Amino acid sequence: MNTTYTISIFTEDIIGLLSRVTIIFTRRHVNIESITASESELKGVYRYTIVVTVSEEQVKKLVKQIEKQVEVLKAFYHVNSEIISREIALYKLSAEAFKENESFMNIINANYAKILSIASDYIVVEKTGDEREIKQLFNDLEKFGILEFVRSGRVCITKPLKTLNAFLMELENNSNTTIKHFNK
Amino acid sequence: MKKHAKYNTEVTGAEALILALLDEQVTDVFGYPGGAIMPVYDALYDYSDQLTHYLVRHEQGATHAAQGYSRVSGKTGVVFATSGPGATNLITGIADAQIDSTPMVCITGQVASHLLGTDAFQETDVLGISMPVTKWNIQVTKAEDIAPAVAKAFFIAASGRPGPVLVDITKDAQFGKTIYKYEKCESVRSYFPSPKVNETDVEKAAELINNAKRPYILCGHGVLLSGAEKALLELAEKGDIPVASTLLGLGAFPPQHPLYVGYLGMHGNYGPNLLTNECDLLIAIGMRFDDRVTGNVSKYAKQAKVVHFEIDPSEINKIIPADVAVLGDAKESLGLLLPKIKATKHTDWLKRFEDCNDIEFEKVIKHAVDPDSKQLRMAEVIDKFHKISEGNAIVATDVGQHQMITSRYYKFNKPNFCVTSGGLGTMGFGLPAAIGAKVALPNTEVITVLGDGGFQMTIQELGTIMQSNIAVKILVLNNNFLGMVRQWQQLFFDRRYSFTEMKNPDFITIAKGYGIKGKKVTERKDLNEALKEMYEAKEAYLLEVVVENEENVFPMVPTGASVAEIRLE
Q1: Nearest CB neighbour to B194, from listed A64, A68, A176
Q2: Which residues of chain B form CATH 3.40.50.970?
Q3: CB proximity list for A26: less than 8 A, separation 6 or greater
Q4: Are B36 and B122 in contact (CB under 8 A)?
Q5: pLDDT under 50 in chain B at which residues?
Q6: Which residue is closest to A12 within chain B, CA to CA?
Q7: A62, B11, B439, B517: least surrounded by Cβ within 10 Å?
């Protein structure tokens, strides 16, 4: 059965590594639903967050193939209940929306969104939430005419407390090669 | 580490590359020059007494030669090529090395860094193109980064499950100046190539083995890569366990040993395939359950428990779920396992293999090695050659029917003497791979067995043999067909021989053009003498044996069938 999994990948900061990771999905004909990349809590260690909908067997194999890449430190997969995740969305609307001020502001408030920017002819609304909430606000605002819409990929924090560093220590301890340590 | 005379002095990036190779104890390079790698070739000119360069005739040949070199010697093969087409020509060999776990370092020249991404002359994104087929790759744009990149490349290529790596060096980096230093790479912090063997897993494996009534060992390339042949032999003997080998594992277990039951896979032996579905415990060592070994996975060894010894975590549970997986180097794992194994006998179980062998002998082998056909058959050629060389020659094959016949009928007495393209099935592999093998082990007889099709894919490497005086013996089994495809057309496509018939050139004349002696044999009475003459020749020699046009390789496990549905005819 296919489920949505969030894969978190911790990597070195290397040109081309993202490509090396994404071709693992391409080769197996798996579509990446969203992807984000940024530096993690460890300096110089990058974190990719990739969302896919596949079977558990598939996601396990994907994670192993990702971990096999020399410059990948560690990869994990999680189901939605194991993570706290957010996406951010921006909606650009015509300033006309203000003409119906009351209902527009009600929608913004009811959705816990905020107005990010106001210009003479347009306004930009920002919403942080999960996929469903972002879609809900989209639906609510549609009647005002959405000029532009953009949604980020998912970012997430995992619920288990174990730190990346602890995982890396474990890897080092189970390895025959001596590794130059991370900040212990 | 012995410090080079140039240590701590200013050198060009190109010279730094050559010095780094020397610091890695590289003695041989296979390559082809071109615009973007000219500074490297210029630097090489001063070191040709320490670093022998073999000029191939096509970059693909360089990769296969490096593979052959590595497969027989365990050393990392090294390749030079220029940018653009030079680099793209490497891809087939790199992909082959990747799937057959062969350590190889490819050095490619690249356009100057300010031209990257401009569609400059002979610019290609070799990093992007090679990414899916390399274990690791890197582009270097500064002279000072060359030596560290080379160090890392050699470490990654040879450690853990070996594989090909590529170092792409821009022309300005080759021309640039740097103070030469070399530090051997011994670890990469994100890379854990050699897992410590978990003793609990070994205990569990031992328990399954000790309790099994019909245990069965499948040995693969991993046994050879880790040098676990002796440990494997001890395990088999102590536990009285039959051993079958994958294509790339041939030679890991002595073929004449009573516990050796044969060769696995689509055209492997009858018993080893059939009895996979009768054993109660499969002990897979350094093998990856390739589809050519498993046939239909849903009907593969369902009755058996599985113990999998494997160094690459991604191979565990990839195809066949393991009841016990022992992650780590095969030699280390088997070393820990041996004291826990109880000496026992499995006489009845072994008898099953003998019986199967008798059936296969009657139905297949007898007719193949001693045929009553008028025309020569491939198996009798290989069988005779086996007897002449007593299994002591390195045999590099190409891909197709002759490859399956060679792996069936040549009994490899020594580890790493079988050089073949298993995973990728690369036609054109045989001839250049044999060249590399002979360069690595010049005192060992090296023969390449080729089909008429595959030979012509890299036939230009006869030029390399000529120029560098490489005493490779070439045995062409000519059936004037792309035989394996023709066999499939006959069996599964209603004998519609679509574009598999070959009109071939006169191979002997071609060889002569390259200054290589040759002989063509069409009749049985001349075969033995001709094989002897080829084997005993002191220099390169080509023997063409014209064989039956429409011979089929049996046994065969048809695609989609279970290993138990192996066909003998």
Answers
A1: A176
A2: 10-179, 374-546
A3: none
A4: yes
A5: 1
A6: B190
A7: B517
Cβ under 8 Å to B: A residues 53-112: 60-61, 64-65, 67-68, 70-73
Question: Does the annotation mark B427 as catalytic?
Answer: no
d(C-alpha B508, C-alpha B546), whole Å: 12
Q: State yes or no: cis peptide before B85, omega within 30 of 0.
A: no
Instruction: Out of B131, B195, B314, name the one closest to residue A174 (CB).
Output: B195
Give which of B191, B310, B326 to mutate to test A binding, by max A Cβ within 10 Å.
B191
Token reading at A57: 């067997």
> How many angstroms separate the Cα of A30 from the Cα of each of A23, A25, B67, B131?
10, 5, 32, 18
Contact (CB<8Å) A23/B132: yes
d(CA A159, CA B110): 46
Three-state secondary structure of A53-112: EECHHHHHHHHHHHHHCCCEEEEEEEEHHHEEEEEEEEEEEEHHHHHHHHHHHHHHHHCC
Q: What is the pLDDT of residues A112-133, one digit of tens each?
A: 999 999 999 999 999 999 999 9
C-alpha span between B131 and B350 (Å, rounded): 46
Residue A184: what pLDDT?
38
Assigned token pair, B289: 């359950």
Domain boundaries, chain A: 3-83
Place A182 in a pLDDT band, splitting at 50, 70 and 90. Answer: low
pLDDT (0 to 100) of residue A183: 47
And the tokens for B369? 């090695």
CATH of domain A3-83: 3.30.70.260
CB A87 within 8 A of CB A47: no
Q: How far apart are CA B494 and CA B209, in angstroms?
A: 46
Catalytic entry in B484, B507, B544, B551 = B484
User: For the whole model, what pTM was predicted?
Assistant: 0.96
Domain B199-353 has CATH 3.40.50.1220: yes
- Report d(CA B227, CA B416) in Å as an integer: 10
Query: Domain B10-179, what fold?
Result: Rossmann fold (3.40.50)
Inspect the interface and report whether the beta carbons of B318 and A64 lie closer than 8 Å. Answer: yes
* CA R_g for chain A: 20
Under 8 Å between Cβ of B471 and B435: no
**CATH number for the B374-546 domain, one of 2.70.70.10, 3.90.340.10, 3.40.50.970, 3.30.930.10?**
3.40.50.970
DSSP assignment of B107-119, as one string?
EEEE--GGGTTTT
Q: What are phi and psi of B123, to 5 degrees?
A: -95, 130
Closest Cα in chain B, distance from residue A158 (Å): 21
